Amino acid sequence: MRPTDPSDHLRHEEPGTSPECPVKRFRRAFAARTSVRLHYHSSLEVNTCDGVTGSVRVLDRTFDLAKTRVIVLPPGTLHSYEVSGGGTIDVVHVALPLLADWINTDAIAEFARRLTPESLVFGSEDTFPLQTDDLPSDAFGVSSFVFDLLRLLGSRVPAPVLRRPDWLREVVDYTERHHPEPLSLERAATVAGLSRSVFARRFGDQTGSTFHRFLLQVRLEHARLLLERGLTVTDVAQETGFTDASHLIRHFRREFGCTPGRWRRGRDRATVDPP
To answer: Using an 8 Å Cβ cutoff, are 152 and 129 in contact?
Structure first.
């Protein structure tokens, strides 16, 4: 099996931004229990929650989504979700590299390194003065939004500086690229530069999950992408690291509540039928 092309990365960066429109906005509705695996973006992400229950993991801290209004995630911030069902999250991605003529991305990167999880999550009782629904589409207007956001976060940044686990981001990147291969805990530990036992413990402490669970989520996520592209279940299983089609079907049903074939038929109907 070949390593996955970086362009196939599923959540490392959301597509859809351009120099003419450096902002992407969309809404995620949660009709059922949903897991969003560990990932990060190179864009600035702002999530506004409405009626969502479950939890969000930001770096090594877990927050109750029912008590959360806004989550601000600077570039490179590792996070994951376990949504119990119901509610929506309005997502805004700001592609900072596309604003290079207006803002200093190095200064923002330095600022992001000083943030703690508590400075990124705003509860329902907080006053959040930024109206993401009214974001301008021009780059200059968006850059003003970014600076307003940084000023707001700056008032919430406590000392000391939080050290980021760079080894964890390397493991995320490696897993995304090589998930079709037979990845073991030992191999992931080698990528992290840690012993097997230390890696397993630290991965659990940082993510609230196991590496095996994370790898399975990456494979299933990529499986859905390939199903959308029209590959057969057998081919998808081979391309995503599952032993065979039945192995993929078993885990797919357990994670999403239906078989890959039924899921694809539902996606096809959603594409064809009017809303």
So the answer is: yes
Overall domain count for the chain: 2
Three-state DSSP at 6 gives: helix
The CATH number linked to 44 is 2.60.120.10
* Partners of 174 in beta bridges: none
Which residues span the domain enclosing 219? 166-272
Phi, psi of 82 (to 5 degrees): -130, 100
Rg (CA), the chain: 19
Look up residue 14 and give its two tokens: 């959301």
User: What's the predicted TM-score (pTM) here?
Assistant: 0.80
Alpha helices in the chain (DSSP H): 105-112, 139-154, 166-178, 185-192, 196-207, 211-228, 233-239, 245-256, 260-272
Give the residue from 121, 154, 187 where a domain finishes: 154
pLDDT of residue 188: 97
- Helix ranges (H only) for 27-104 are none
How does DSSP classify residue 12? Answer: S
146 band by pLDDT with thresholds 50, 70 and 90? confident
Q: For residue range 203-231, what is the model confidence (pLDDT) as tens digits? A: 999 999 999 999 999 999 999 999 989 99
pLDDT band for 129, please (50, 70, 90 cuts): low
